[in-house]
Amino acid sequence: MTTSTAPARADRRARGGPSWVWRCGWLLAAAIPLAFLALFFAWPVATLVGRGFASEDGSTLGAVVEVLTSARTWRILRTTLTLAVLGTVVSVALGVPGAYLLYAVRFPGRGLLRALVTVPFVLPSVVVGVAFLSLLGTNGPLGFLGWEESLPAIVAALVFFNYSVVVRTVGGLWSRLDPRAVEAARALEASPSRAFRTVTLPALLPAIASATTLVFLFCASAFGIVMVLGGVRYSTIETEIWYQTTQLLDLPAAAALSITQLVVVTLALLATSWTSARQERALRLRGDASGEHTWSWRRDWAATLVTGATVLGVLALPMATMLLRSLRDREGWTLDHYRALGTTVGRSLPVPVWTAIRNSLVVALEATAIALVLGTLVSLVVSRRPRDPLARKGLRALDAAFMLPLGVSAVTVGFGFLITLNRPPLDLRSSMLLIPVAQAIVALPLVVRSILPVLRAIDPRQREAAATLGAGPGRVLRTVDGPFLVRGLGLAAGFAMATSLGEFGATSFLARLDRPTLPVVIFRLIGRPGEANFGAALAASVVLTTLTAVVMLLAERLRPAEASEL
After folding, report:
1. Global pTM value
2. 544 neighbors 119 (Cβ within 8 angstroms)
3. Which residue in 275, 277, 390, 534 has a CA-CA distance of 20 to 30 Å to 509?
4. pLDDT (0 to 100) of residue 283
């Protein structure tokens, strides 16, 4: 017996050790991110919800009932939904032609144009607000329209922010549709428009529905854009939470509003999950980038005109205006606004702007490191393909759990930190890790959505072949999964870094006066009167835009060939 078990032990050591060791390793890989999520997301949000159900006299549901019966709350909710619906409808209407042109048609420079269209999605919301303020404000080139602090200005900024979501989501499927179905319809004498309505559009509906729900979610939780462009006339649930917390110090009212927002975004997130599942089923039926054809003016003129007008008028014009106005003052061209970044801008700020830039870079690097470690562990676990049905359901639940921060406002996360992590045993009020942790929570879903599709693209037969040839679990993980993981890390790091650099919702609650980040400084400069303050805000916004664009362009160059879900 001893003789027969010795080779078995040696064989197990050669294959990576006893199976229970690897089971414990996978459990630990799942437990560490879950503990982080429970501590820094579930606990703050649950505490916030509990605060909303308590009133000053201790009665249950007191604060919620009081807030929900307020006429102001219903007006704010109506404004939030109106902006979200309008922003979604316009984004989808303009994004579908762009998806066709950039993903189903081949032409020179398409790759560069795709990358440029992607940049607005990862730009800080405060910068987007400043860009449109420079364009539509009183002294802007389109100031004569009178759109400052108006509904059209906010909707245009929402479209700027979410256009690429529609283009990438719908375009990723469009480029892979099998063209033979359309060719068959045309052979039966169907017109191009009828072939589109009866063949192409039904095939694209899952992707369009997924993009619609995602854009609605982002529009409903837009914070920086509304804070900059909405003024006193347009308040959404997010801006009202900030106002109730920082100005009125009414935490129960803010918590009740957060619960209202949680209901809205949860419904949108459930719709997103459902439509994404439908899209995944549709993707299994498609060819591999077989639907592309060469650009033709006669066939593609409408999509070309719509996409050109959108890219130039909605995406490029605000950014170009912001850049040009940052280089001018009343006397003409100047670099004074950029020189002011080395000062406190006439004592408007507690620290120089360059200090805030350094703070943002340090915080973003810390948040990116946290999000990458946790996101890698989650992606490795969720990408497994167990045979046990119960295990598969558990992995799907784990995947859904780490998507929850995507559906909960960063304002809610920051507010939850404020009322939870301020006392023993976990008092982080004076800790430098508070903001990186909050930003890592916000970036974590994007990291998982960048890495997971790459790992899922691995053919299971590669792992089986390696194991058959005698490779242990560790070697299979290192030699089969490792190269794919490395290819996905570049894009994941780019998204995490860009998200952290521009994060404003949670950071606006947590940033200390002596250690602000760049988005917080920009917002403070906008809120102060004077040409010097606005000029410095423009210059700071250009710097932040440049940093974000460079990060994302580098990440795009590292994007793997496998399709990403972003």
Report:
1. 0.79
2. no
3. 534
4. 46
